[in-house]
Amino acid sequence: MNDRHFARISGTISRRTALRGGIAVSALALAGPALAQKKTPVGEVSVDELMKTSGIDDIVIGKPEAPVTIVEYASMTCGHCATFHNNVYPKLKAKYIDTGKVKLIFREFPLDNLAVAVSMLARCVGGEGPPAFIGEMFKRQPEWAFAQGNPVPRLFEISRQMGFTQASFDKCLTDQKLLESIEAGRKRASDTFGVNATPAFFVNGKRLGGVTLADFEKAIDPLLKG
Q: Which residue in 111, 112, 131, 113 sits closest to 122, CA to CA?
Protein backbone atom coordinates (compact mmCIF):
# COMPACT_ATOMS: atom_id res chain seq x y z
CA MET A 1 0.00 0.00 0.00
CA ASN A 2 1.25 3.50 -0.72
CA ASP A 3 0.66 6.88 0.87
CA ARG A 4 -2.11 8.02 -1.43
CA HIS A 5 -4.33 5.15 -0.24
CA PHE A 6 -4.23 6.55 3.27
CA ALA A 7 -4.61 10.04 1.85
CA ARG A 8 -7.86 8.93 0.24
CA ILE A 9 -9.09 7.64 3.58
CA SER A 10 -8.03 10.88 5.22
CA GLY A 11 -9.75 13.00 2.61
CA THR A 12 -13.11 11.31 3.10
CA ILE A 13 -13.06 11.14 6.88
CA SER A 14 -11.53 14.54 7.58
CA ARG A 15 -11.03 17.03 4.77
CA ARG A 16 -8.90 19.22 7.02
CA THR A 17 -6.35 16.48 7.70
CA ALA A 18 -3.48 16.31 5.20
CA LEU A 19 -0.98 13.47 5.20
CA ARG A 20 2.22 14.60 3.54
CA GLY A 21 5.56 12.99 2.81
CA GLY A 22 4.90 9.60 4.40
CA ILE A 23 2.49 8.19 6.92
CA ALA A 24 3.27 8.60 10.60
CA VAL A 25 1.17 7.74 13.61
CA SER A 26 1.53 11.29 14.88
CA ALA A 27 0.07 12.69 11.66
CA LEU A 28 -2.79 10.21 11.67
CA ALA A 29 -3.61 11.15 15.23
CA LEU A 30 -4.39 14.69 14.10
CA ALA A 31 -7.64 13.38 12.67
CA GLY A 32 -8.86 12.42 16.13
CA PRO A 33 -10.77 15.61 17.06
CA ALA A 34 -12.53 15.70 13.70
CA LEU A 35 -13.51 12.05 13.94
CA ALA A 36 -14.69 12.11 17.53
CA GLN A 37 -16.84 15.18 17.91
CA LYS A 38 -18.03 15.40 21.48
CA LYS A 39 -21.71 14.67 22.01
CA THR A 40 -23.72 14.33 25.17
CA PRO A 41 -23.88 10.63 26.11
CA VAL A 42 -27.30 9.01 25.95
CA GLY A 43 -28.20 6.79 28.88
CA GLU A 44 -30.81 4.66 27.12
CA VAL A 45 -31.88 4.29 23.51
CA SER A 46 -34.59 2.42 21.66
CA VAL A 47 -33.45 -1.11 20.94
CA ASP A 48 -35.19 -0.98 17.56
CA GLU A 49 -33.33 2.21 16.69
CA LEU A 50 -30.05 0.77 17.97
CA MET A 51 -30.44 -2.32 15.79
CA LYS A 52 -30.68 -0.33 12.57
CA THR A 53 -27.54 -0.55 10.48
CA SER A 54 -25.85 2.10 8.35
CA GLY A 55 -25.37 0.40 5.01
CA ILE A 56 -23.07 -2.30 6.37
CA ASP A 57 -23.81 -5.62 8.05
CA ASP A 58 -23.17 -5.90 11.76
CA ILE A 59 -20.36 -8.07 13.06
CA VAL A 60 -22.29 -10.37 15.39
CA ILE A 61 -20.68 -12.73 17.88
CA GLY A 62 -22.98 -15.27 19.52
CA LYS A 63 -26.37 -16.80 18.84
CA PRO A 64 -28.80 -14.48 17.03
CA GLU A 65 -31.62 -15.52 19.36
CA ALA A 66 -29.72 -14.68 22.56
CA PRO A 67 -32.01 -12.75 24.94
CA VAL A 68 -29.44 -10.05 25.73
CA THR A 69 -27.68 -7.91 23.13
CA ILE A 70 -24.51 -5.94 23.79
CA VAL A 71 -23.62 -3.31 21.20
CA GLU A 72 -20.01 -2.20 21.37
CA TYR A 73 -18.55 0.85 19.67
CA ALA A 74 -14.77 0.66 19.49
CA SER A 75 -11.77 2.17 17.75
CA MET A 76 -8.98 -0.15 16.70
CA THR A 77 -6.34 2.31 17.91
CA CYS A 78 -8.00 2.77 21.31
CA GLY A 79 -5.85 1.41 24.13
CA HIS A 80 -8.84 0.98 26.45
CA CYS A 81 -10.61 -1.01 23.73
CA ALA A 82 -7.60 -3.31 23.44
CA THR A 83 -7.52 -3.76 27.21
CA PHE A 84 -11.17 -4.77 27.19
CA HIS A 85 -10.78 -7.22 24.31
CA ASN A 86 -7.59 -8.74 25.68
CA ASN A 87 -8.58 -9.03 29.34
CA VAL A 88 -12.34 -8.75 29.89
CA TYR A 89 -13.88 -10.01 26.67
CA PRO A 90 -12.60 -13.63 26.98
CA LYS A 91 -14.32 -13.95 30.38
CA LEU A 92 -17.50 -12.27 29.13
CA LYS A 93 -17.54 -14.56 26.11
CA ALA A 94 -17.07 -17.72 28.16
CA LYS A 95 -19.75 -16.81 30.70
CA TYR A 96 -22.44 -15.30 28.52
CA ILE A 97 -21.81 -15.51 24.78
CA ASP A 98 -20.66 -19.13 24.47
CA THR A 99 -23.59 -20.21 26.67
CA GLY A 100 -26.14 -18.58 24.38
CA LYS A 101 -27.25 -15.92 26.84
CA VAL A 102 -25.72 -12.90 25.10
CA LYS A 103 -24.74 -11.81 21.63
CA LEU A 104 -22.27 -9.01 21.02
CA ILE A 105 -22.49 -6.65 18.07
CA PHE A 106 -19.18 -5.00 17.27
CA ARG A 107 -19.39 -1.62 15.54
CA GLU A 108 -16.60 0.65 14.38
CA PHE A 109 -16.10 4.09 15.90
CA PRO A 110 -12.68 5.03 14.47
CA LEU A 111 -10.85 7.81 16.26
CA ASP A 112 -8.19 8.32 13.59
CA ASN A 113 -7.32 7.28 10.06
CA LEU A 114 -5.23 4.30 11.08
CA ALA A 115 -8.22 2.92 12.98
CA VAL A 116 -10.32 3.42 9.85
CA ALA A 117 -7.83 1.40 7.81
CA VAL A 118 -7.78 -1.51 10.26
CA SER A 119 -11.58 -1.50 10.45
CA MET A 120 -11.73 -1.72 6.67
CA LEU A 121 -9.31 -4.65 6.67
CA ALA A 122 -11.38 -6.44 9.30
CA ARG A 123 -14.43 -6.08 7.07
CA CYS A 124 -12.56 -7.39 4.03
CA VAL A 125 -11.71 -10.67 5.74
CA GLY A 126 -15.29 -11.80 5.11
CA GLY A 127 -17.23 -14.78 6.41
CA GLU A 128 -16.61 -15.55 10.08
CA GLY A 129 -13.17 -13.97 9.96
CA PRO A 130 -13.76 -10.39 11.23
CA PRO A 131 -13.92 -11.23 14.98
CA ALA A 132 -10.65 -13.18 14.79
CA PHE A 133 -8.97 -10.39 12.83
CA ILE A 134 -10.19 -7.77 15.31
CA GLY A 135 -8.98 -9.86 18.23
CA GLU A 136 -5.55 -10.35 16.71
CA MET A 137 -5.16 -6.66 15.91
CA PHE A 138 -6.09 -5.68 19.45
CA LYS A 139 -3.68 -8.27 20.81
CA ARG A 140 -0.85 -6.89 18.67
CA GLN A 141 -1.90 -3.25 18.85
CA PRO A 142 1.48 -2.02 20.21
CA GLU A 143 3.20 -3.44 17.13
CA TRP A 144 1.30 -1.40 14.57
CA ALA A 145 -0.48 1.45 16.37
CA PHE A 146 2.11 2.92 18.72
CA ALA A 147 5.52 2.01 17.35
CA GLN A 148 7.71 4.68 15.80
CA GLY A 149 7.76 5.25 12.07
CA ASN A 150 5.46 4.32 9.23
CA PRO A 151 2.82 1.83 10.47
CA VAL A 152 1.97 0.51 7.01
CA PRO A 153 4.64 -2.22 6.69
CA ARG A 154 3.80 -3.63 10.12
CA LEU A 155 0.09 -3.46 9.38
CA PHE A 156 0.57 -5.30 6.11
CA GLU A 157 2.76 -7.96 7.70
CA ILE A 158 0.14 -8.79 10.32
CA SER A 159 -2.59 -8.75 7.66
CA ARG A 160 -0.50 -11.02 5.44
CA GLN A 161 -0.23 -13.54 8.26
CA MET A 162 -4.03 -13.57 8.36
CA GLY A 163 -4.50 -14.25 4.66
CA PHE A 164 -4.11 -10.93 2.84
CA THR A 165 -1.94 -10.51 -0.22
CA GLN A 166 -0.51 -7.16 -1.26
CA ALA A 167 -3.22 -6.94 -3.92
CA SER A 168 -6.11 -7.73 -1.57
CA PHE A 169 -4.67 -5.39 1.08
CA ASP A 170 -4.50 -2.49 -1.38
CA LYS A 171 -7.91 -3.26 -2.88
CA CYS A 172 -9.55 -3.27 0.54
CA LEU A 173 -8.08 0.08 1.53
CA THR A 174 -9.32 1.73 -1.66
CA ASP A 175 -12.92 0.50 -1.27
CA GLN A 176 -14.74 3.83 -1.21
CA LYS A 177 -18.16 2.31 -0.46
CA LEU A 178 -16.80 0.44 2.55
CA LEU A 179 -15.05 3.56 3.78
CA GLU A 180 -18.23 5.63 3.53
CA SER A 181 -20.28 2.93 5.30
CA ILE A 182 -17.90 2.88 8.26
CA GLU A 183 -17.97 6.67 8.44
CA ALA A 184 -21.79 6.66 8.27
CA GLY A 185 -21.96 4.23 11.18
CA ARG A 186 -19.58 6.33 13.24
CA LYS A 187 -21.54 9.50 12.51
CA ARG A 188 -24.85 7.86 13.43
CA ALA A 189 -23.39 6.57 16.70
CA SER A 190 -22.26 10.07 17.58
CA ASP A 191 -25.32 11.99 16.41
CA THR A 192 -28.06 9.57 17.48
CA PHE A 193 -26.64 7.73 20.48
CA GLY A 194 -24.21 10.29 21.85
CA VAL A 195 -21.17 8.04 21.57
CA ASN A 196 -18.24 10.30 22.41
CA ALA A 197 -15.54 7.90 23.62
CA THR A 198 -14.46 4.32 23.18
CA PRO A 199 -15.19 1.69 24.12
CA ALA A 200 -18.91 2.40 24.54
CA PHE A 201 -21.40 -0.33 25.35
CA PHE A 202 -25.18 -0.60 25.26
CA VAL A 203 -26.83 -3.60 26.97
CA ASN A 204 -30.35 -4.07 25.60
CA GLY A 205 -30.32 -0.36 24.82
CA LYS A 206 -28.95 0.92 28.15
CA ARG A 207 -25.55 2.60 28.23
CA LEU A 208 -23.09 0.66 30.39
CA GLY A 209 -21.28 2.74 32.98
CA GLY A 210 -18.07 0.70 33.10
CA VAL A 211 -16.05 -1.94 31.29
CA THR A 212 -15.23 -4.54 33.93
CA LEU A 213 -16.74 -8.01 34.04
CA ALA A 214 -18.57 -6.98 37.21
CA ASP A 215 -20.13 -4.05 35.33
CA PHE A 216 -21.43 -6.42 32.67
CA GLU A 217 -22.69 -8.91 35.24
CA LYS A 218 -24.61 -6.16 37.02
CA ALA A 219 -26.31 -5.17 33.76
CA ILE A 220 -26.88 -8.62 32.29
CA ASP A 221 -27.93 -10.84 35.19
CA PRO A 222 -31.20 -9.02 36.00
CA LEU A 223 -32.21 -9.24 32.34
CA LEU A 224 -31.66 -13.02 32.34
CA LYS A 225 -33.68 -13.46 35.53
CA GLY A 226 -36.49 -11.36 34.11
A: 131
Task: Write the CB contacts of 2 (distance below 8 Å, at least 6 apart in sequence).
Answer: none
Give the contacts of 176 (CB within 8 A, at least 6 positions apart).
8, 12
- Judged on CB neighbours under 10 Å (0-12, 13-18, 19+), 18 is exposed
Please tell me the pTM assigned to this model. 0.83
Contact assessment for residue 101 and residue 224, using Cβ atoms and an 8 Å cutoff: yes
Q: What is the CATH number of the domain that holds 200?
A: 3.40.30.10
Per-residue pLDDT tens digits for 96-142 = 999 999 999 999 999 999 999 999 999 999 778 999 999 999 999 99
Number of domains composing the chain: 1
